[in-house]
Amino acid sequence: MRVGVMGGTFDPIHLGHLAAASEVAHHFGLQTVVFVPAGSPWQKADRDISPAEDRYLMTVIATAADPRFTVSRADVDRPGPTYTVDTLRDLRSEWGADAELFFITGADALNDILSWRDADEVQRLAHLVGVTRPGHVLSDPGLAPGSVTLLDVPALAISSSEVRARVARDAPISYLVPAGVDNYIAKRGLYRDTP
After folding, report:
1. Is the Cβ–Cβ distance between 153 and 105 less than 8 Å?
2. Is residue 105 exposed (0-12), middle (13-18) or buried (19+ Cβ within 10 Å)?
3. 1: which DSSP letter?
4. Strands, sheet with 100-106, edge to edge from the N-terminal-most edge strand
5. Is the torsion defined by CA of 125, 131, 133, 139 positive or negative?
6. Residue 148 belongs to what H/E stretch?
7. Residue 100 pairs with which residues in a beta bridge?
8. Mean pLDDT across the stretch 141-158?
9. Rounded distance, CA 107 to CA 165, Å?
10. What's the gap between Cα 102 and its chain centre?
């Protein structure tokens, strides 16, 4: 079994995330991609983020139409800061030792991976796949040979921070996020206080 793991804050999830997951699934012949919204991301402790339950529900809505995609509550339900190594340990336990895990991350996060908790174990638990992200150069940060693949995905210049900023200034986000996510954001009044 070949399983993609796409962790992220998903505040909110957008079409760029979905396009990246689809491209990686196609490239590696993955049977499924598990989206794992972060519970309390340690890298963003200095920033207000939407409640984990809202981010989880938006991810469920966004991925519902693609049968290859599933969503895990592993990080949402785990107390304390969210670390990738814990996510991968949980998913390894769930999927078993025979599953091949492919951890999908953006170029910006990949550049910082050596600062992650237990970075060596992260590399042992999953093959890392770095995907292009607007405004960030895709480069191997010096990881073990064969532990990372760099993959260009269709250019979708969308970021969660831009989506939040557009909502805050009452600009449309149609075609940046799935329609169900757009409706959820409006219904819950998310990002209205974002500068």
Report:
1. no
2. buried
3. -
4. 69-71, 32-37, 2-8, 100-106, 127-131, 148-151
5. positive
6. strand 148-151
7. 2
8. 76
9. 22
10. 12
- Tell me how far apart the alpha carbons of residues 185 and 179 are, in angstroms, rounded to a whole number: 10
Q: How far apart are CA 132 and CA 154, in angstroms?
A: 8
Q: Which pLDDT score, from 0 to 100, does residue 138 have? A: 61
Residues contacting 68, CB < 8 A, separation 6+: 22, 25, 30, 31, 32, 33
Q: What is the pLDDT of residue 42?
A: 65
Q: Which residues pair with 8 in a beta bridge?
A: 37
Contact at 8 Å (CB) between 165 and 194? yes
Residue 122: pLDDT band (50, 70, 90) is: very high
Element (H, E) at 44: none
121 token code pair: 């174990």
Burial zone of 38 (CB within 10 Å; 0-12 exposed, 13-18 middle, 19+ buried): buried
pTM of the full predicted structure? 0.88
Residue with more model confidence, 63 or 151 = 63
Range 118-141 average pLDDT: 80
Average pLDDT of the chain?
89
Using only the alpha carbons of the chain, give its radius of gyration: 16
Specify the amino acid at residue 107.
Answer: A
Nearest residue to 30 via CA among 116, 137, 151: 151
Report which secondary-structure segment, H or E, holds 161.
helix 160-168
